[in-house]
Amino acid sequence: MSVAPPPELPAVAARFWRYVQIDTEADRDSTTTPSTAKQKDLGRLLARELAELGVADAEMDAHGYVYGSLPAAPGAPRLALLAHVDTSPDAPGGPVVPQLHRAYDGSVIRLPGDPEVALDPAVSPELAAHVGHDLISSDGTTLLGSDDKAGVAVIMQTVADLVADPELPRPALAICFTVDEEIGRGVDKIDLERLGADVAYTIDGGAVGTFSFETFNAAEATIRVRGVGVHPGYAKGVMANAATILSGILAALPAAETPEATSGREGYFFPHEIGGNVTAATARVLLRDFAADGLERRKRLVEELARGAAGAHPRADVEVEITDSYRNMREYIERTDPRAIAFAFAAAESLGIELTAELVRGGTDGSRLSEMGLPTPNVFTGGHDFHSRFEWNTVQNLEASLAYVKALVGYWARHGGEPA
User: Fold this and answer.
1) pLDDT tier for residue 140 given thresholds of 50, 70 and 90
2) Could you say which of 27, 181, 385, 391 is catalytic?
3) 42, 111, 114, 121, 385 from 118: Cα distances, Å
4) Which of 86, 214, 220, 371 is catalytic?
5) Where in the chain is the domain with CATH 3.30.70.360?
6) 220 an active-site residue?
7) Within the chain, which residue ranges are assigned CATH 3.40.630.10?
8) Can 25 be counted among the known catalytic residues?
9) pLDDT tens-digit readout, 33-78
């Protein structure tokens, strides 16, 4: 049963409150698009709400992508705004019961659904900078879904405000809500021709005032070991323990190059899924590096360790499959249309705020979109502690993101006709 937004919430926060209550958790093991049918529940709602706002071509396609557009004067650039509807499978996705913590005083907030889950400034230092804000969290039993329903709400409210005030400057505006971003498939089925944009922004970032146009280069290595099982009392010279062999490969990865030991521009190896037994064992290892040659080095090391294990254990079969996920989007953006970056900073200056370039130690839909020829940096939504039951945002942060996106759209309307 859904919880109605508190009446005092501004429109963008009320939208966010409603959207987070629709469970859209993605599924890594699914082979369908979207990976979970429930993502379409939110997609259908968004398409309907866009149509009610007067977006004549609003529609959800068979894959769950929602498209719509607002026209502008002939010759205006076509700008796209994107956000993803799915939430991460790393924490329970629903039912989300949102909580409003008015005028945060800086203390520890224990969430009512699970008192062991608390918003604690000692654990999340960003909370200290939000004293006086009206915080929104889950009840502690699920994630909140600010990643990326905050972006969805900001885009929807931007459209609503532009439609309500025809005097607000805007370029031709394309809207797209994607699926399965959290499992790396966010643009697998996107129709770029239908989107028809020259430049785009994903509204999918974190802290207020941050702007991202550089991500990891990313790949995933799947290591499979097939062993030989036999009674352990008679195993000498016969058994090849797949679990032990796989453990040895993972233990040989550099201990100083893990997610918990790196920051900034440092890359990592991340075994994020391991399973198996004596006869068969598998691990999935994320490979991340900001430099292209650094990612290649990581690929080679995994392959070398697997070959070494195969040589040391001739009774076992050791295989490695490496799949590229996305590339560092900076080079593609700067080569295709550097105004995507320059205009973002200029729009912030017009609002009197200082925009800070923030490295994305991960990826966004914009990573692959930029590689596909559509330059797509990432804009802040104000959320924190994503993919966890500790996730939170604030009413004031959502309003700040909305104000900035509207300023960005207006800047493109005024200056987008200038040469790239």
Assistant:
1) very high
2) 181
3) 28, 6, 8, 9, 12
4) 86
5) 217-326
6) no
7) 11-214+328-415
8) no
9) 999 999 999 999 999 999 999 999 999 999 999 999 999 877 778 9
